[in-house]
Design goal:
CATH topology of the largest domain: Ribosomal Protein L22, Chain A
Number of helices: 6
Distance between the termini: 24 Å
Structural class: alpha+beta
Strand content: 25-35%
CATH architecture of the largest domain: Alpha-Beta Complex
Helix content: 25-40%
Largest sheet: 5 strands, antiparallel
Oligomer: single chain
Shape: globular
Strand order of the largest sheet: 4-8-7-6-5
CATH class of the largest domain: Alpha Beta
Number of strands: 8
Order of helices and strands: HEHHEEEHHHEEEE
Radius of gyration: 17 Å
């Protein structure tokens, strides 16, 4: 599975802009125990650290906007923890490189960029994912879902993009799993049980088994978006 489909004296970007419909929203509702930031458009005037600029020097414009804005979200959330702006570079398998003593997760899709962070002394790991609330493309559900999961998505009832919620939950599972294990996780190595009350349980089926065997997560569906999240306390 992939996200599939205080450095004082460091040179860096200017003060963060306040434009861009930045607000308390889905992530704050979903994960109130951690610091979050989300925006629904790409604010103008966001600057990157030189090392970040190098990472996307050859990227297409869409990727540059996503990369830039989600780091704006990350630095805004880190500021809630009292942490000064630092470069956030992609590391192994694209996982964000957080400052020492911080755990977090970032996500972006059309119309949404967001981040959740916490101090490592309080939280072991975080995984968040946002998706458009639209049906999965043909063939994707069959590729990612276990037989039991076809049953659980039906339990959410009509009018709910249950297949997309399942996909997003698996993405959040991977984002929470990888920092703990440094191991790849296939879609079929996480069994998701969705609850209509906006929570889910993820059972890890990786072989050989590891100490991490289960995650408890939450999901929301609103305003054309699906957002899922996992926070594992320390």
């Amino acid at each position: 599975m992939s996200s599939f489909i205080a450095a004082s004296g460091a040179a860096g970007p200017p003060a963060l802009p306040t434009a861009g419909r930045e607000m308390t929203g889905l992530l704050a509702e979903l994960l109130p125990e951690v610091a979050t930031c989300e925006v629904y458009a790409d604010p103008p005037g966001i600057a990157l650290f030189p090392a970040e600029q190098q990472m996307i020097a050859s990227a297409v414009e869409k990727r540059r906007r996503e990369f830039t804005t989600v780091r704006h979200c990350a630095r805004t959330a880190l500021r809630e923890l009292g942490i000064a702006p630092v470069p956030i570079l992609p590391g192994e398998r694209g996982a964000p490189g957080w400052p020492p003593g911080v755990v977090g997760s970032m996500t972006h899709c059309a119309g949404f960029r967001g981040c959740a962070v916490a101090l490592a002394g309080h939280v072991r790991t975080i995984g968040v994912d946002a998706e458009p609330a639209a049906p999965l493309p043909d063939g994707v559900l069959e590729a990612i879902a276990l037989p039991e999961e076809h049953v659980t998505i039906k339990a959410l009832g009509p009018g709910v993009p249950a297949d997309r919620i399942l996909f997003s939950a698996k993405e959040s599972v991977y984002k929470a799993w990888f920092p703990l294990t440094r191991r790849f996780l296939q879609f079929h190595e996480a069994r998701i049980e969705l609850d209509p009350n906006g929570v889910f349980t993820a059972t890890l089926l990786a072989d050989p088994p590891l100490p991490v065997t289960e995650f408890q997560g939450r999901w929301r569906y609103r305003s054309g978006l699906v957002v899922t999240g996992i926070v594992v306390p320390a």
